Amino acid sequence: MPAPLESSRPRLATGCRWGKDGEDRVVLFPEGMIRLQGTGQSVLELCDGQHTLEQIVETLSKRYSADTAKIREDVATFLEALQQKRVVDY
Amino acid sequence: MTPNPLALIAEITHRCPLHCVYCSNPLQMMGTESELPTGEWIRVFRDAAHLGILHVHLTGGEPLARSDLEALVGAAHSAGLYTNLITSGVGLSETRLGSLVDAGLDHIQLSFQDSREQSANWIAGAKAHAHKVALAETIRRFRIAFTVNLVVHRQNLDHLGEMIAFAEQLQPDRLEIAHAQYYGWALKNRDTLMPTRRQLENCLRSVGQAQERLSGRMRIDCVVPDYYARYPKACMGGWGRSIMLINPGGEVLPCHGAGVIPGMQFDNVREHPLDWIWQDSAAFQRFRGEQWMPEPCRSCDRRTLDFGGCRCQAFLLTGEASVTDPVCTLAPSHHLVESLQLETDEEKRPEDVVWSYRMNPAQERRHVNSSPRHLDPSRQ
Q1: Nearest to A1 among B82, B144, B216 (CB)
Q2: Does the pLDDT at position B376 exceed 70?
Q3: Which of A19, A26, A86 sits opposite B174 (nearest CB)?
């Protein structure tokens, strides 16, 4: 699978959902869970199947007042890795 | 301090319509009359979530054999647990699957015995294959994670490529290629199940190629059968470290096989709180941590990676549960595993295969007259 497009609407893959491990929000999937912190969690929380990658990048660059091109690259790489793990679909 | 458990394996029944020769259930099983009732399981799921458990794996036997499965899934889901159903699929109609999904089922794992119908039914001791293939198509119509579990061993590994292609057509999210592990019924059948070294090498190559080809479409997990590994598996992620198993009668075990170890006594959820059983009961304390370890484990750097391997395997191969797992190339008893590898080099043809099919608790009761021990469902 290639990297997500600007128009992709990333979402948690089937069988993946948010859960709680103590106070931490974690993503549960069939064989385990991922504990995400900071920006990783922010990105994944925006992956609701409604927002496009373009909108997610825009939201994040406002929130962290960082360079849009750099954020786009980081987010796309991050989502591609999670897609390979079957945690995210787009 | 004892860490929280993360997963609960809930063996809700030993009843099963299949008789797979590689089944890891204990040889002596519990009948319907000793199964935990619905209300007890519901309480257990709440206690489990409270203890920090995230996943519940509903298994058996065949979990669908319980008519209250929908209620159990619903209760586990309401408690906040990620619910996984490990099933043969026999007895699952589209309507019932719909009810389970509505109740909050997150994931279904469907087992296959082979890609070839005749062989699959031979291994399962039941005509189930065609039904499973039809069911896989039904599952894809629901928004639920789907894993195909393919159990591999000497009798089917020669056509692993064909089996992977078969699994691919079923379109699961994930394929688990599970080498039979030699506990319970599989241990009885080890001579006919243990792969040859050549089969193992071919298997690793086929799996590697398929993983690359299917990357991002279907995830493939495969674990090396541990008689051929250099170091033992970190069985259950370490004794009493992250997983607990509750058997149909409510006894809480550190793993599937622990009942074979002499002197083990398991506390029951009917009599004790789950958190006490996890933290303080004798069964969970027995091989927890490093105190029990002999050399070479005690001073080995790998003791924090594999925790000394599998206690049941150590017992089954050497007669001693507290020695280093013989699978480890550093173990004083490793020659036992090496001789098994050598014996397996001799090829046997399928028509020569004589094996023991897994029986049901009900079938066992029919043998009561010839073996009075079967009267007592709590024996191990």
Answers
A1: B216
A2: no
A3: A86
Average pLDDT score over residue span B184-203: 91
Query: How does the average pLDDT of chain B come out, rounded?
Result: 91
The single-letter DSSP state of residue B149 is: E
Integer Cα distance of B22 and B357 in angstroms: 8
Among chain B residues, the shortest Cα distance to A19 is held by: B80
Whole-number Å distance between alpha carbons of B88 and B279: 33
Say yes or no for a CB contact (<8 Å) between B173 and A1: no
Q: What is the rounded distance in angstroms from the CA atom of residue B103 to the CA atom of residue B294? A: 47
What is this structure's pTM? 0.91
Residue B251 CA to residue A22 CA, distance in Å, equals 26
* Dmax (CA) of chain B: 56
B308: left (phi over 0), alpha (psi -120 to 50) or beta: left
ipTM given for this complex: 0.85
A28–B54 C-beta distance less than 8 A: yes
* Residues whose CB falls within 8 Å of the CB of residue B75, separated by 6 or more in sequence, listed in order: B41, B42, B45, B46
